[in-house]
């Protein structure tokens, strides 16, 4: 019983990390029709910024805030300097974001080396607590809580705020919204900033989960981020949340009860089966 409880909580924690990665991807694609292959690079930027701040005597909350801010600024710079001129050129857009996704890890390796750096986990988050006989790491609850907050914030942004409604209207009829005197470009930059902030937050929290940061971490998590986005339905934040729970639990149980690495294979098989039965994913709408 204790083993099942531990696997469930750690699986939910892993799923929460995947959601933080996938939420930004889903938001940007759903609202802007942009497949951002540089999303993993933004995660790595947030991870290293959080690690640097935490290593220089910042408290972890301040370090996480700093890392998220740096990742947000990087995403805004990416949108303004690279994505905006290519909105009507999707092929060049993909190539450009892939290039950034390859260049940033190389830059991080050149500055701090290719080896993993130990993440300074604060004492309050390094311990465990007992739940139904299982010793559960505290940081898993932090990841789950952060994912729930981000999910709620995104749903409120999309459905209850003026900026969210403007962005959705701009996607449907950009010319009409512009004719009403609304700057759609500024709203799109805001969406990119929110997506980048989610990626950077995921990077800062990934240090807690893995206990280290390395230049390739963002790219590895990006793969599962795309898997979750496709399973949940392209552009559906709620669908991504459901898919993250399923993927995280399947990975944890498959890795524990079978050979190492079978969890990743199980996720791929599950993705293929879902697409054969339901090509649009769990949901096909932005919500």
TrEMBL record:
One of its GO terms (cellular component) is plasma membrane. InterPro entries: ABC_transp_permease, BCAA_transport_permease. It comes from Streptacidiphilus pinicola. Its main location: membrane. The chain crosses the membrane at residues 6-27, 60-82, 94-114, 141-158, 187-210, 222-249, 256-277. The keyword rRNA-binding does not apply. Belongs to the binding-protein-dependent transport system permease family. LivHM subfamily. One of its GO terms (biological process) is amino acid transport. CDD domains: TM_PBP1_LivH_like. Keywords: Amino-acid transport, Cell membrane, Membrane, Transmembrane, Transmembrane helix, Transport. One of its GO terms (molecular function) is transmembrane transporter activity. It is a multi-pass membrane protein. Pfam families: BPD_transp_2. This is Branched-chain amino acid ABC transporter permease. It comes from the Bacteria. It is found in: Cell membrane.
